[in-house]
From TrEMBL, chain A:
Isoform 1 interacts (through WDR repeats) with NVL; the interaction is independent of RNA or pre-60S ribosome particles. Isoform 2 does not interact with NVL. Interacts with MTREX; the interaction dissociation in a late stage of rRNA synthesis is required for appropriate maturation of pre-60S particles and depends on the ATPase activity of NVL. One of its GO terms (biological process) is RNA metabolic process. PANTHER family: NOP SEVEN ASSOCIATED PROTEIN 1, WD REPEAT-CONTAINING PROTEIN 74. The keyword Transmembrane helix does not apply. This is WD repeat-containing protein 74. Residues 321-372 are annotated as: Disordered. GO terms for cellular component: nucleolus; preribosome, large subunit precursor. It holds the Pfam family WD40. Residues 345-355 have a biased composition (Basic and acidic residues).
UniProtKB/TrEMBL annotation, chain B:
This is Ribosome production factor 1. PROSITE patterns: BRIX. GO terms for cellular component: nucleolus; preribosome, large subunit precursor. It is found in: Nucleus, Nucleolus. Residues 1-61, 73-96 are annotated as: Disordered. GO terms for molecular function: rRNA primary transcript binding. InterPro entries: Brix, IMP4/RPF1. The lineage of its organism: Eukaryota, Metazoa, Chordata, Craniata, Vertebrata. GO terms for biological process: maturation of 5.8S rRNA; maturation of LSU-rRNA. Residues 13-25, 73-87 have a biased composition (Basic residues).
């Protein structure tokens, strides 16, 4: 198990409760679960890294437990109970210097220490929370949002009142109230801005520094609820996905669509961009993990994983073979072989006539060496 | 083709006829010679012909027609000859002959689908064993079906509904009365219905079908085409009886196909009454699902007779949605994306 888990660069949580690891370079997928003890209570809702070196994975399951998975050993090392399953599923799970933050649908945001079974602190983020995320730059800041529950940014050291509360949008041209429904949010790394996507197919950017509590940028994409978003490493754009499997890259300067990522056939559940490379991984109800390149928006990898997938997590190390085309699908390989043949034939001309007979086998050997 | 290079002149024509008596391969050489001679006669026409001469370049219509007919005959003869030759070879070789080639169809050239269900796969078995239909397949619930239509149905749709209700046991047809589907669904759940079928109508013709499994989904949306009601079917059997029919599901091989197959299977009670000798068939071919309803009879040990009872129709999956009907906020498990998914004609989804 340990050998397999060390290979994996993409981790996925499924609806059947299986933790899946995918090694993109070796084109292999592994299940890290005992298939005999499957049950729907074990459904994985959230995934996050347990430590900055990425040797531990934290999984939040539907029955209210948080499991720790060691990627070094390839086994589950710890199971602990974090809250009541009746309060709803996990909507967010984060790590803040050796304590664990959890948030459930009913809005209870709790901080858990390693040793105690009771939460250290607790705050109420309101009803129907759809997502809780931590600011990667300031780990004390977290953002929450949900249905009829606008974006709130909390400082965990002062849990009484939120640092920032979003104001509802202006009434529409019929003077009707516009409903809130934050489905996912992310902190833009360099500035304090927060980007959210809503169930009413809008993308909003909030700026907590400015006095304006309404979004500083409004954009729309498609006609169906947006379910997930992710920020690429390059900045000033955001990748959003909706319930029909339409994924698009939006520009955050003007809110225009830069391009769509094709190939998905079912609703998106989670998106994640790679920390350094221009790659985005998406998973959802169509049971596929797809990795697209953000540069040419082509599909790089597609892996069938047999269960509906809830969440995806990428490691920070480079996913090799994505853009280089070294093992980017069958087509890339074929092309390379053709090129090799071209080179082989050229070598033949240079070599002496006596060596000609063995040149073809030598060429093959060289090819192998190249691949190694 | 070699034959087309013959220029329009009497001399060459007669040569061509002679050539026809000979074998194919020799013809090229002799014809070239013929062409040269005709070119000498009519130098203008000979030089005017581009190297690829086609019959369509002949300006005289009657002449062109004549030549074209000749060309066709020639081709046909060649083809027959090759066939004959092949057959002779086959006969001569006897048992050693190469096996006959299987004709290429888009079904047997199908692109491999990685989601094809392996019956021994534990994970898929678990996924299917605990899905929304597990209660039915474990024998805990009996299907009860509500059939309704879009608002104000007209002739054909009404008849289609009624006939569908005779096929599906324990089905109730209700008038829609302008009610919203989202408001019907809780009422259906309260009355223990396990399915809601909504038939959509456009220009008095049924064209859509929403199949919603209750109480918690999934919902499938189909396009309905070529509906033939009982009256329109030739050699129709007598009215179907109240017996529970047997169900045949053909070719639902992928993971999506399995879900759709289970959706159809759960429409009918699990214990068919074989006394009724009635079969409902859902046959999937190239992602179109053909529905037929038959009665069979064993005439003797070898022969079986079947009789169609109707109605017959064709379905094509448009979308499969998780949860009960919610076209705006529901999450789709699969959506047909035209020009993206059907770009490859040999790729099938079901």
């Amino acid at each position: 198990m340990g050998d397999q888990s060390r290979l994996c660069s993409v981790w996925l949580g499924s609806e059947t409760g299986i933790l899946k690891g995918v090694s993109v370079t070796h084109k292999q997928a592994f299940n890290f679960c005992n298939t005999r003890q499957l049950s729907r209570d074990q459904e994985i809702r959230v995934l996050c890294w347990g430590d900055p070196t990425e040797t531990e994975l934290l999984l939040g399951t539907v029955d209210g437990t948080v499991k720790t998975f060691s990627t070094e050993k390839g086994i589950f090392t710890e199971v602990r109970r974090c809250g009541d399953p009746e309060e709803g599923c996990f909507t967010g799970l984060e790590v803040r210097n050796s304590s664990v933050l959890t948030c459930v649908e009913s809005g209870k945001l709790r901080v858990w220490r390693e040793d105690s079974s009771e939460p250290v602190s607790e705050l109420d983020a309101g009803k129907n929370v759809c997502r809780m995320r931590q600011n990667p730059v300031h780990p004390n800041r977290v953002g929450t949002g949900g249905k009829e529950n606008g974006l709130k940014i909390w400082d965990l050291e002062r849990p009484e009142t939120p640092v920032f509360t979003a104001k509802n949008l202006r009434d529409d041209w019929l003077d009707l109230r516009r409903p809130h429904w934050v489905r996912d949010l992310a902190f833009i790394p360099d500035c304090d801005k927060v980007v959210t996507c809503t169930g009413h197919h809008q993308v909003h950017v909030f700026d907590p520094v400015s006095p304006q509590r309404r979004p500083v940028l409004e954009a729309e994409f498609g006609d169906y609820p947006l379910t997930a978003l992710s920020l690429p490493a390059s900045g000033d754009s955001v990748v959003v996905g909706n319930t029909q499997g339409q994924v698009a890259v939006l520009d955050l300067r003007k809110g225009l669509v830069r391009g769509c990522l094709k190939g998905l056939s079912g609703g998106v559940r989670a998106l994640q961009c790679h920390a350094s490379q221009p790659l985005v991984a998406s998973c959802g109800l169509d049971r596929f993990l797809r990795i697209h390149s953000l540069e040419d928006r082509r599909l790089q990898h597609k892996v069938y994983l047999k269960s509906r997938l809830n969440c995806v997590l990428l490691g920070s190390q480079e996913l090799r073979g994505g853009a280089e085309g070294e093992d980017g699908g069958a087509e890339g390989e074929v092309k390379e072989e053709e090129e090799d043949e071209v080179w082989d034939s050229m070598e033949r001309v240079e070599e002496d006539t006596t060596k000609r007979k063995s040149s073809s086998s030598e060429g093959e050997e060289k090819k192998k060496k190249k691949k190694d | 083709m070699d034959v087309t290079e013959v220029p329009v002149s009497q001399g060459s024509k007669s040569k061509k006829k002679k050539n026809n008596n000979k074998k194919n391969k020799m013809k090229d050489v002799s014809q070239e010679g013929g062409e040269g001679s005709s070119g000498a006669e009519k130098s203008e026409s000979g030089t005017a012909f581009p190297p690829t001469f086609s019959v369509s370049e002949i300006k005289n219509k009657q002449r062109r027609h004549l030549m074209f007919m000749k060309l066709k005959q020639e081709k046909r003869k060649q083809k027959l000859q090759i066939k004959k030759q092949k057959r002779k070879e086959r006969e001569a070789l006897g048992d050693k002959a190469l096996p006959k080639e299987v004709p290429k169809t888009i079904e047997n050239q199908r692109v491999f689908d990685e989601t094809t269900v392996d019956p021994e796969d534990e994970e898929v078995a678990f996924d299917e064993g605990t899905d929304e239909f597990s209660a039915y397949f474990n024998g805990l619930t009996n299907p009860k079906v509500l059939i309704t239509t879009s608002d104000r149905p007209r002739g054909r749709t009404v008849r289609f509904c009624r006939q569908l209700a005779t096929v599906i046991p324990n089905a109730h047809v209700y008038y829609r009365r302008g009610l919203a589907l989202k408001r019907i669904i809780p009422q259906c759940v309260a009355r223990d219905f396990t399915y809601l079928i909504v038939i959509n109508e456009d220009r008095h013709v049924p064209n859509g079908l929403v199949l919603c499994h209750l109480p918690d989904g999934p919902t499938a949306h189909f396009k309905v085409s070529s509906v033939r009601l009982r009256k329109e079917i030739k050699r129709l059997g007598k009215e179907p009886t109240e017996h529970y029919p047997e169900v045949i599901l053909n070719n639902f091989s992928t993971r999506l196909g399995h879900s759709i197959g289970r959706l159809f299977a759960a429409l009918f009670p699990q214990n068919p009454e074989f006394v009724g000798r009635q079969v409902a068939t859902f046959h999937n071919q190239r992602d179109f699902i053909f529905f037929r309803f038959h009665r069979y009879i064993f005439k003797n040990e070898k022969k079986v007779g079947i009789q169609e009872l109707g109605p017959r129709f064709t379905l094509k999956l448009r979308s499969l949605q998780k949860g009960t009907f919610d076209s705006k906020y529901g999450e789709y498990e699969w959506v047909l994306k035209r020009h993206e998914m059907d770009a490859c004609r040999r790729k099938f989804q079901l």
